[in-house]
């Protein structure tokens, strides 16, 4: 494919794309995350976690201007809507009721990872627009029903909006450090209203009185034994909920060897034995001229957790309070708690609007979805306004 000065190439494996060029483009974006690094996407593919066999058939779009990589993204062809966290099952059902195929569809996203960030990597707005048009044209040529960009950055949404994709909004819950930084966890608690402050103290006390203690390790300090224990916890919790884990042990092994600087592990112990763990991602980083990785923004992401024993309030301690205390001690500006979960507000994670963009090839269905999204968007706006009135922070006098 070609467009003016651009040449578009489409490959079905991450190995066909230069990793250094991809990462350099990522680190130049306004909202990079570690989940869009080439090594992360390659690990999903090479470990068998996100492949055709699991319903995630990747297509890596690269846009070249001469020898320069000017734009790139990955679009997955999917025969289902699992692992996306932006729910379109009703759209698929409506297509089916009218005798039309909704699947396969194209999804521009990071599999199993509802973290907002740059999706359309591009050197400038023109390249991003060309990349958007290339994906849309490819879907039309391949008779793909639709394209969906999930949890995109503002620049991505501007590009898709210009191409007349429809926007959809959801709500996540993120913690923000104050401008000057909290001195410690108690200083943070002092910023909350009395009810929420009391609740957090009670929950932490329950865990401590159960004899549970925590230790944490970061990056290369995480031992192979701790990685193996974490996976036991992760897989056990998925299976307790009746689902197989999305990610394979090999995926986490690749994280340990190829992206160790992005991971922080908390392990809960009782009577000297590990009983639970939570894995936090740290990012993003950028590649400096000497090839080392340096901090670009101090953001942490709550990702995975699991337990082998049940302890009251252990989930809150492992997934929120321990990570927040670490973020405060290490000067991190934000902690993203992941998709859904209004209960997170009680832990001072505040509502944040996240956005996705959608293109449907069928005009009548596109019109119907547009009307639905307008109604849904009004509901989301009202929901956010309602949540703002329930802020756990102290009200200014």
TrEMBL record:
SUPFAM superfamilies: Acyl-CoA N-acyltransferases (Nat) (SSF55729). It comes from the Bacteria. Pfam families: FemAB_like (PF04339). InterPro entries: Acyl_CoA_acyltransferase, FemAB-like. This is GNAT family N-acetyltransferase.
